[in-house]
């Protein structure tokens, strides 16, 4: 059931939910492909300038090589490229979800109850986040595999003699930091928890070495691109935090993440999850999941600029915390009511993200691409749809029909016109 929704999301979830998903991942890919030759010079891509260098090149290069292979087998459609990348990402995301379930279900009293499985394997956020091209998506997939394995390695001694496997999953943990350096704010609290409650010098050393090698590998990729050594992670810390540049994107109060869980993250389900999270913290102070979630939120609270996507990592545990909370409710009427509300809320969002495009402009590009042989020129009225926040997504638009501003003095018989003004249409 969940896998089917992953397939739907991979093909129907056209576009991106945040500008960074495209302009900091796919436009660098377009640059590597020779589509966007102005990446470094363009003021809108300030993060990639040689004197800034706060974006790692690992993920763009990963997608670049996937697309290069697709071009070898004569797949040259940029929209099909992204659908294939999303499908691959979704497949690994799906496997990480299943692996996480079998690895942590006992910590949350998950049993053979039907609603437990329904909550976890129909959770809208899984196909939504895993079928994206964002750094959040890939880093969460790497983190999920690594966390699920290493948690059992430290707490159950299931892999006590498997040093090579501990090392391999440590590399994945390090790669999650390479893809999204902010993952350190989730991983560091877990590291502290291991030291305090599950100390094992040999395993900690192996994990540390694996993470460090992965991080150096990421820096090596950056070096190959720039042609000189660049400590990307220090640049992020210096530019965005020490220099205060992050605050220029807006300042939010310290309680932002708590009300955003309610307002932005499925209002009904999000409210219940928020209560479940607080309840779990109070009852399980020594739990790794308390340290993981509380540590992540607390770390991002101290920064002026806040966005819900910064704490996406903890949201993959939403159904687990919710089930734990519901199982501790003795009143059956209240319990069943809350279960019903969660299911309804979840399926509303599941339907939205499976059957509607994430970004309507990219959906327009997709439509124009399908009509490319029948449209020579396109005209727009009021707003140029080829621009998103004054930036042109050349990864998609480079092969689309030429576009011009509508002018009443010209003849527009049998012309294609795009506009958000329905009265004009």
List the helices and strands and how they pair.
Elements: H1 2-12, H2 19-33, H3 58-72, H4 78-104, H5 114-121, H6 125-130, H7 135-155, H8 163-179, H9 184-197, H10 201-226, H11 232-242, H12 256-263, H13 267-283, H14 288-301, H15 312-315, H16 318-327, H17 332-355, H18 360-370, E1 377-380, H19 394-397, E2 402-405, E3 416-418
Parallel strand pairs: 1-2, 1-3
Helix content: 55-70%
Question: How many DSSP E strands?
Answer: 3
Using the CA coordinates, give the radius of gyration.
23 Å
Q: What's the overall average pLDDT, rounded?
A: 89
Largest sheet: 3 strands, parallel
Q: Report the total helices.
A: 19
Main sheet strand line-up: 2-1-3
Order of helices and strands: HHHHHHHHHHHHHHHHHHEHEE
**Strand-residue proportion:** under 5%
Note poorly predicted spans: none
Principal-axes shape call: globular
């Amino acid at each position: 059931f969940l896998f089917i929704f992953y397939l739907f999301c991979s093909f129907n979830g056209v576009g991106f939910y945040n500008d960074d998903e495209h302009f900091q991942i796919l436009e660098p890919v377009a640059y590597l492909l020779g589509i966007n030759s102005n990446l470094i010079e363009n003021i809108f891509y300030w993060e990639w300038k040689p004197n800034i260098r706060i974006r790692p090149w690992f993920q763009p290069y990963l997608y670049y090589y996937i697309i290069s292979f697709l071009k070898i087998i004569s797949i040259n459609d940029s929209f099909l490229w992204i659908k294939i990348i999303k499908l691959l990402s979704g497949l690994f995301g799906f496997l990480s979800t299943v692996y996480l379930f079998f690895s942590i279900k006992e910590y949350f009293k998950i049993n053979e109850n039907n609603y437990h499985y329904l909550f976890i394997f129909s959770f809208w956020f899984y196909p939504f986040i895993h079928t994206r091209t964002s750094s959040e998506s890939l880093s969460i997939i790497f983190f999920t595999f690594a966390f699920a394995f290493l948690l059992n390695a430290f707490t159950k001694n299931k892999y006590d003699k498997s040093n090579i496997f501990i090392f391999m999953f440590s590399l994945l943990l390090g790669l999650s930091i390479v893809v999204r350096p902010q993952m350190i704010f989730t991983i560091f609290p877990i590291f502290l928890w291991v030291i305090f409650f599950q100390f094992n010098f040999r395993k900690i050393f192996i994990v540390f070495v694996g993470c460090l090698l992965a991080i150096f590998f990421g820096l090596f990729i950056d070096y190959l691109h720039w042609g000189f050594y660049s400590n990307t992670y220090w640049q992020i810390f210096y530019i965005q935090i020490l220099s205060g540049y992050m605050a220029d994107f807006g300042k939010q109060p310290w309680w932002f993440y708590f009300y955003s869980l309610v307002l932005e993250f499925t209002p009904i389900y999000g409210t219940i999850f928020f209560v479940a999270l607080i309840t779990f913290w109070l009852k399980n102070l020594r739990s790794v999941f308390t340290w993981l979630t509380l540590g992540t939120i607390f770390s991002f609270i101290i920064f002026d600029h806040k966005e819900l996507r910064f704490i996406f990592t903890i949201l993959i545990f939403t159904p687990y915390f919710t089930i734990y909370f519901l199982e501790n409710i003795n009143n059956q009427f209240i319990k069943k009511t809350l279960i019903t509300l969660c299911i309804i809320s979840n399926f509303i969002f599941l339907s939205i993200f499976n059957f509607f495009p994430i970004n309507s402009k990219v959906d327009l590009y997709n439509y124009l691409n399908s009509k490319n042989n029948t449209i020579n020129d396109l005209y727009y009225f009021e707003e140029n749809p080829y621009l998103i926040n004054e930036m042109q997504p050349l990864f998609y638009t480079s092969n689309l029909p030429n576009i011009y501003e509508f002018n009443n003095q010209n003849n527009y018989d049998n012309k294609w016109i795009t506009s958000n003004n329905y009265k004009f249409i």
